[in-house]
Amino acid sequence: MSMKKNYPRLILMLPLVFIAAGAAAQSWCTPNTGPAYASTQPGITNFTLNTLNRSSNDLENTSNSYVNTGLSTTLIAGNPYNVTIGYTIDASICPDMNLRVWIDFNQDGQLDDIGETVITSNNQTSLSYTGSFNVPANAMNGTTRLRVTAKMTSNGGHTLPTPCNIPADPLGYHGELEDYTIVITGGVSSIQDFSGIFSNVEIAPNPSSGITGISYSLKTASAVSVELFNMAGEQVAVLSREEQPAGEHHIYFDPARLSMEAGIYFIKLTAGTAVHTKKLAVIK
Length: 284
What we know:
Layout (H helix, E strand, L loop, with lengths): L43 E6 L2 E4 L10 E11 L3 E8 L9 E7 L13 E8 L3 E7 L7 E11 L22 E11 L12 E7 L7 E7 L3 E9 L4 E10 L2 E7 L9 E9 L2 E9 L2
Parallel strand pairs: 3-9
Antiparallel strand pairs: 1-2, 1-4, 4-7, 5-6, 5-8, 8-9, 10-11, 11-14, 12-13, 12-15, 15-16
């Protein structure tokens, strides 16, 4: 049995990892933010990326703080891009905003895979933010989705933004989300599966609020690394790194001892060129 090892907490960026055999028909979630609390609710006033430059009212849809703009631009895999987000603030309730941009690079219909949060900026007060990101060289060619949000922060009692507002903010969304279509070129035509050496990979319980177990089987003896990452691609911990024989293996860890907040995390198992990732939800 492989037990958890105590390593120092590291903060490293994780390269984008794709584990699907191919992209299914995309069906991105429509965020259910509920009705806006007021017509003065803050939101996005401008989004600029490549050939996109859209200005709008800060709250365009009072029945659901979400807009699918229908606008598109083409991005080249491996290239860097600047993005600018303009937004408003309702300082009487909250003095700042949290900003996110997500892109579904592997076209699996989800926006929270590892490496797909391309912009993370918290507690912004300047009403305009400019950042940059790189399109991964192994992003999948074709049409996909970008989602951008500006949302009130914990200074107004709000939770961090997620692409589908899951779990729903208990105070209501208090911000806005916009969708854009992205066409990727210069990437890969299909997503390869490098996880053949691993089988029966399970995390339990999931969602987890305490001691969590990872179980998996190895087809051959291998040097295995088991790492834990947050949604921003930051490494939270190395849970195991050692030579392991073929067969079944089990690792246990306690999210509380790793100072993990509630949210979505990823377990990454690596053996040579074989990579397998699993999503973990931590609840309090």
